[in-house]
Amino acid sequence: MEQRHKEYLQKYFDSLTPAQIEQYSYCNADYFCADEYNANVCADLILKGEKRASCSMDYWYSHEGDRRPQEGDLTSQYAL
Q1: Less packed terminus of the chain by CB within 10 Å, N or C?
Q2: Which Gene3D superfamilies does the annotation name (predicted)?
């Protein structure tokens, strides 16, 4: 996770109570799409309220060696 993402996440945690923070067992930051244009399209849909969820492909986790999301995880999504 890049420093700017850690700072963004910390701002969010600073707004929570200790009990709320404890419910998260894992945090990561990912970006939308593979290019800036589509990442911005995705971000615009979120801001309009048209996009409210995301899912990652199993391929990403199995071939990149990343940890699969689990219940209780917190993921920060951002545009490139």
Answers
A1: N
A2: Sulfate adenylyltransferase (3.10.400.10)
